[in-house]
Amino acid sequence: MAAIRVSGGARLAGSVRVTGAKNSVLKLMAAALLARGCTVLHEVPDIHDVEIMAELLRRLGCSVERDLAARTLAITVPEHLEHRADYDLVRRMRASICVLGPLVTRVGAADVALPGGDAIGSRGLDMHIDGLTRMGATVASEHGYLVAQAPRLHGAHVDLDFPSVGATENILMAAVLADGTTTIENAAREPEIVDLAEMLRAMGAQVDGAGTPTITVVGVEGLQPVEHTTVPDRIVAGTWAIAAAMTQGDVTVHNARPEHLELALDRLSLAGAAIDATADGLRVRMDRRPRAIDIVTLPYPGIATDFQPQFIALNAVADGAAMVTENLFEARFRFVQELARLGADVRTDGHHALVRGRARLSGAPVEATDIRAGAGLVLAGLCADGVTTVHGAEHIDRGYAGFVEDLQALGADAERLA
Ligand code: UD1
Q1: Which residue among 79, 134, 218, 324 is least crowded, i.e. fewest CB within 10 A of its CB?
Q2: CA of 18 to the centre of ligand 1 (A)
Q3: Burial classification of residue 68, based on how many CB atoms lie within 10 Å of its CB (0-12 exposed, 13-18 middle, 19 or more buried)
Q4: 50 and 166 inside one domain
Q5: Which residues line the pocket of ligand 1, CB cutoff 6 A?
Q6: Residue 279 sits in the same domain as residue 147
């Protein structure tokens, strides 16, 4: 197990550059399956989940080459693909489920291991299954696998109960090669969905309405491979913005899109931060202890659940008390027990966490339970007296490329422990 050690007290100052979004690139890699030939992705982050997805694509018969220095990934997709995603890969990364839609529509079959529980709560697949079933697939759960079959999918009207990111993506990717028109109502509107739709359109798909609650797809006969640049990671950019505010620092984030962070940045300015758009990103400055700010997580354009731990960490050192409401993943407050080891005053009740700020936290060993909890704990460690060691740093590696190097570049006393 890896760990990140931070000594608190430094004010983060300087600049960092964000690469492509984890939550986009994994789906773009799955979308490459839709076209025979070589798809090239740019701004691919150097994170562990990309490796897992690359391994999954290789087992399906693709060749995947990565140029870390150039941040590119080339995926060569053969005419005939395998259609089984094994448990050993899916259990390491739930996002593996996004090969379901592309495989059913391109190969006519998919056996994808059920991801099982996740440290942030139960994450159902009912909407993925319902959407594909409406499009003519038979989907059954057999021996721990979702077994889907459809010689040819047809267009359908799919009304999602909830704007699920994963279900929207799977149904969208399945629809591009189906017969006829598919409409997805109550679709997720995340920038990563728009990114996926842009790549699909460049491949020759007919997709309208991505970024709105209604996506319309007219199926086409075939798609061509393309080159595509991954949308910048708004969660990583926002994490640096929150870190700047918490440490009363001055951080410029390059390759960020402030328009993807509107509500989160609005909350940070309420906390007292000065936020400016720059030519290719944003700058966050803070000259005082942050004011406590209420946060409610919601599907985009609401504040992302992936910011919840970082905002709890901010409130833990803020002036005043705030309520943080989590509406997406019920177990995401689990990390609060770890934050309490640093002296944070947080009480949870169901979906709500009441956070009473303390002027200073106190460094301690803690354990990261998922990617964002890990980031939240490191941020809290930056505002704690003495040394905080965040164990389970491999979770952080799944979502943040070069996190420790970036922290060091911004002036933090941080190091990675083997
Ligand atoms: C994606 C992101 C994750 C982010 C989340 C919400 C990736 C790889 N991960 O996850 O970082 O936190 O969006 O913004 O992109 N649900 C069901 N049935 C379904 C599908 C979802 O009940 O068929 C529920 C889930 O249990 C959860 C909620 O819907 O409570 C949101 O899930 P969803 O939007 O699908 O998130 P993911 O795609 O898994």
Answers
A1: 79
A2: 23
A3: exposed
A4: yes
A5: 23, 26, 95, 122-128, 162, 164-167, 304-306, 328-329
A6: no
Ligand 1 geometric centre to CA of 288 (Å): 36
The span from the CA of 237 to the CA of 280, in Å, is 12
Residue 95 CA, closest ligand 1 atom number: 8
Residue having the nearest C-alpha atom to atom 22 of ligand 1: 124
- Do 246 and 118 share a structural domain? no
Give 83-128 pLDDT, tens digit per residue: 999 999 998 898 999 999 999 999 999 999 988 655 545 568 999 9
Say if residue 294 is in the same domain as residue 192: no
Does 118 qualify as catalytic in the annotation? yes
Same domain (yes/no): 177, 317: no
pLDDT, mean over the chain: 96
60 and 154 in a common domain: yes
What is the pLDDT averaged over residues 219-224? 98
d(CA 228, CA 94) in angstroms, rounded, equals 24
Task: Spot the catalytic one: 67, 88, 118, 287.
Answer: 118
pLDDT digits (tens, 9 = 90+) for 368-395: 989 999 999 999 999 999 999 999 999 9
The position carrying tokens 């700010």 is 293
Q: For residue 413, give its domain range.
A: 3-18+232-417
Q: What total number of domains does the chain contain?
A: 2
Q: What is the residue-wise DSSP string for 224-245?
A: ---EEEPPB-HHHHHHHHHHHH
52 and 191 in one domain? yes
Q: Distance between CA atoms of 177 and 159, rounded to whole angstroms?
A: 19
Same domain, yes or no: 104 and 8: no
Picking from 182, 212, 229, the residue at the C-terminal end of a domain is: 229
